[in-house]
């Protein structure tokens, strides 16, 4: 064997090993989910394979059950409201931090990031007691406000990332042309940072949808969200409607990931760069 | 008539310690093309930014047509600005960029179209209105920025090194273009540049900045012929700066003794009482001839040819004077000089100025500022 053939054979072996490792890692990551979800199509209320008869009865149960319908509605309402609030707050905070070169800038950044780092059970307990103290426990408002606080930091992160590439001279230009700061923000800044705003909003939605811990503490039976409902049903009388709900949430999550990836690609093709960059 | 712009006792500090503009007084006439010229960091951009409303003066007041402007926010000033990187809105088409100031002012769609079209015609770019800035060349972006700054007929247009990013040929074309637009629209232009050639060819007046202070403000001809100090003399155009000692004064004239022997008659450039003299003389004002001929025309210095460089339409000869200083001469003659040959340099007394202060206050004076 020649030297070159040997190296290529080696690299072939390497590549095969890498491929096998990659596949196994993916199975490790996704295996449980991919094993669980198909059971939602099993006609029998048993968690085992093979699937005896294919059926959509758990899905129709899901839709028929007022309890599940309420949970779904709660999740949509809470996640949407929290996303809107978190996005507005996050964009304002990111823009303010970008504008102001004041002292304590980095301290504020750390404070804003804390909710992302603190274990959620700590946040949940503290919020539970705080809201209870002011008589707001077991309300939609409390749950929405809590999710807003949890989701706003990620919006600050994604918006700050696009603002880092935003040319501040554009705002001076807008001002010189007669636009007041609000108009300049709406017409110039916002369109240019939109990719960051949208991806922040998607992440915010995902954070709200993902939460069980805080909702367990703050939600009464009327505010029970989809994940809480799934958790409750898995621990008491288990039926495969939970698997059906899981399947639906999984699809939503995958759709959001695909959306973010498409957004990222579009952003790369039409970057929020300064017009000047194309000149250099 | 009130001046278009007036800076009155303006000082500016960014850090409350060092002043980057020091007690600036400046009056700009309506319709004037004024250029701020000076070395890097001399405060040109700062002066412009204060006029545009992006920076606040630390002390003093800026008046525009007699109104105090310092407290007025930028978007209420009605002053057009062309930025060095153009600052075109990348998400808007060329037409939308130019329409922006009109929309802000609430113009109707018909009026908008007409004015955008007229502005594009003015900068000779009627076909590209649908394109995005990223699809334009540097020169085209420059024109669009100019059209956008002019379309709403502001009182004043400010430009901060607008041609800095263009190659030389395009820069010269744009200089002519900007100048002709200025002549047509007749608004006040305040222009910042590093490039003294640009300043001389385009401006009605040029203000020479150094370290936050205007050294001289005058029309290009005066600036070139009658610089008020050695800094301006060497900053504008090429100039020799010969060191000597003042031995006589009177009637606006000074007599300077050269270290290598001989004396020069010169205009007195300032009222300094010092003995040190810095005599400024332009290379193209000097005649050079072979040998040691006294032609009786004012100043005569003898020396030897150090170097000759041929430029096509002229020749630059570097002469080592007696006493060691170098003198650059620009001559049209094709007479060949050999290195080491003895020559005589002569010029009229009114073509040279004697200053008592060196061009830079804090560094040693350079022997000659012209490199051959
Ligand atoms: N935003 C700022 N904050 C602090 N210092 C500044 C700021 N802008 C300018 N300076 C300082 O002020 C001085 C004058 O700067 P300015 O930008 O006005 O100079 P300039 O004449 O425009 O120079 P250049 O030809 O390099 O553009 C410089 O020393 C600069 O470092
Ligand atoms: Mg500058």
TrEMBL record, chain A:
Domain ABC transmembrane type-1 as annotated: residue spans: 72-261
Keyword list, A-Z: Cell inner membrane, Cell membrane, Membrane, Transmembrane, Transmembrane helix, Transport
Cellular localisation: Cell inner membrane; Cell membrane
InterPro entries: MetI-like, MetI-like_sf
Transmembrane portions of the chain: 12-37, 71-95, 107-131, 143-164, 192-220, 240-260
UniProt membrane topology term: Multi-pass membrane protein
Family stated for the protein in its record: Belongs to the binding-protein-dependent transport system permease family.
Gene Ontology BP, a term: transmembrane transport
CDD domains referenced in this protein's UniProt entry, alphabetically: TM_PBP2 (cd06261)
Name of protein: ABC transporter permease
A single GO cellular-component term on record: plasma membrane
Automatic annotation (TrEMBL), chain B:
Record's bilayer topology term: Peripheral membrane protein
GO cellular component assignments: ATP-binding cassette (ABC) transporter complex
Chief place of localization: membrane
Gene Ontology molecular function terms on file: ABC-type polyamine transporter activity; ATP binding; ATP hydrolysis activity
Catalytic reaction(s) noted: ATP + H2O + polyamine-[polyamine-binding protein]Side 1 = ADP + phosphate + polyamineSide 2 + [polyamine-binding protein]Side 1
Keyword 4Fe-4S: no
Keyword annotations from UniProtKB, A to Z: ATP-binding, Cell membrane, Membrane, Nucleotide-binding, Translocase, Transport
A Pfam family recorded for this sequence: TOBE_2
SMART domains found in the cross-reference section: AAA
Subunit architecture: The complex is composed of two ATP-binding proteins (PotA), two transmembrane proteins (PotB and PotC) and a solute-binding protein (PotD).
Function: Part of the ABC transporter complex PotABCD involved in spermidine/putrescine import. Responsible for energy coupling to the transport system.
Family the entry assigns: Belongs to the ABC transporter superfamily. Spermidine/putrescine importer (TC 3.A.1.11.1) family.
PANTHER family according to UniProt: SPERMIDINE/PUTRESCINE IMPORT ATP-BINDING PROTEIN POTA, SPERMIDINE_PUTRESCINE IMPORT ATP-BINDING PROTEIN POTA
Protein's recorded name: Spermidine/putrescine import ATP-binding protein PotA
The species this protein was found in: Oryzicola mucosus
């Amino acid at each position: 064997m020649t030297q070159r053939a040997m190296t290529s054979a080696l690299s072939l072996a390497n590549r095969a090993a890498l491929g096998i490792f990659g596949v196994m890692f993916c199975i490790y990551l996704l295996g449980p989910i991919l094993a669980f979800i198909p059971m939602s199509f099993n006609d029998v209320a048993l968690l085992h394979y093979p699937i005896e008869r294919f059926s959509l009865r758990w899905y129709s149960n899901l839709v028929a059950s007022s309890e599940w319908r309420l949970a779904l509605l709660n999740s949509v309402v809470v996640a949407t409201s929290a996303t809107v609030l978190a996005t507005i707050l996050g964009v304002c905070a990111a823009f303010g931090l970008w504008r102001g070169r004041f002292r304590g800038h980095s301290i504020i950044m750390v404070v804003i990031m804390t909710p992302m780092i603190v274990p959620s059970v700590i946040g949940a307990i503290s919020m539970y007691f705080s809201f209870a103290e002011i008589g707001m426990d077991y309300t939609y408002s409390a749950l929405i406000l809590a999710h807003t606080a949890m989701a706003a930091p990620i919006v600050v992160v994604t918006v700050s990332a696009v603002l880092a590439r935003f040319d501040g001279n554009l705002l001076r230009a807008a001002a010189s042309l007669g636009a007041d700061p609000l108009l300049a923000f709406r017409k110039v800044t916002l369109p240019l940072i939109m990719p960051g705003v949208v991806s922040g909003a998607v992440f915010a939605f995902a954070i709200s949808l993902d939460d069980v811990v805080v909702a367990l503490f703050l939600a009464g039976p009327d505010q029970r969200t989809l994940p809480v409902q799934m958790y409750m049903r898995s621990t008491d009388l288990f039926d495969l409607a939970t698997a059906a709900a899981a399947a639906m949430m999984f699809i939503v999550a995958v759709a959001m990931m695909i959306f973010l990836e498409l957004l990222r690609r579009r952003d790369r093709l039409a970057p929020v760069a300064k017009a000047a960059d194309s000149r250099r | 008539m009130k001046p278009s712009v007036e800076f009155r006792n303006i000082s500016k500090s960014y850090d409350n310690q060092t002043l980057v503009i020091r007690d600036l007084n400046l009056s700009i006439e309506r319709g004037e093309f004024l250029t701020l010229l000076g070395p890097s960091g001399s405060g040109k951009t700062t002066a412009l930014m204060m006029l545009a409303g992006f920076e606040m003066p630390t002390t003093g007041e800026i008046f525009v047509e007699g109104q105090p402007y310092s407290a007025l926010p930028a978007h209420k000033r009605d002053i057009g600005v062309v930025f060095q990187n153009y600052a075109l809105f990348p998400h808007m088409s060329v037409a939308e960029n130019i329409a922006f100031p009109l929309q802000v002012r609430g113009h109707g769609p018909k009026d908008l179209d007409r004015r955008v079209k007229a502005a594009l015609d003015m900068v000779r770019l009627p076909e590209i209105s649908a394109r995005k800035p990223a699809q334009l060349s540097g020169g085209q972006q420059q024109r669009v920025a100019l059209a956008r700054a002019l379309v709403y007929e502001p009182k004043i247009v400010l430009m901060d090194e607008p041609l800095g990013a263009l190659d030389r040929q395009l820069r010269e074309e744009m200089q002519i273009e900007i100048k002709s637009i200025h002549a047509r629209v007749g608004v006040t232009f305040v222009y910042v540049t590093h490039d003294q050639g640009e300043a001389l060819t385009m401006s009605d007046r040029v203000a020479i900045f150094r370290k936050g202070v205007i050294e001289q403000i005058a029309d290009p001809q005066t600036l070139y012929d009658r610089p008020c100090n050695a800094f301006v003399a060497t900053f504008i155009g090429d100039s020799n700066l010969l060191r000597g000692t003042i031995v006589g004064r009177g009637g606006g004239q000074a007599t300077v003794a050269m270290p290598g022997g001989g004396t020069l008659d010169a205009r007195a450039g300032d009222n300094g009482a010092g003995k040190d003299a810095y005599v400024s003389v332009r290379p193209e004002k000097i005649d050079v001839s072979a040998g040691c001929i006294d032609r009786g025309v004012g100043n005569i210095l003898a020396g030897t040819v150090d170097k000759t460089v041929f430029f096509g339409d002229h020749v630059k000869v570097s002469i080592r004077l007696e006493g060691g200083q170098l003198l650059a001469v620009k001559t049209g003659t094709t007479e060949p000089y050999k290195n080491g040959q003895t020559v005589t340099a002569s010029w009229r007394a009114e073509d040279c100025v004697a200053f008592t202060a060196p061009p830079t206050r804090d560094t040693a004076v350079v022997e000659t500022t012209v490199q051959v």
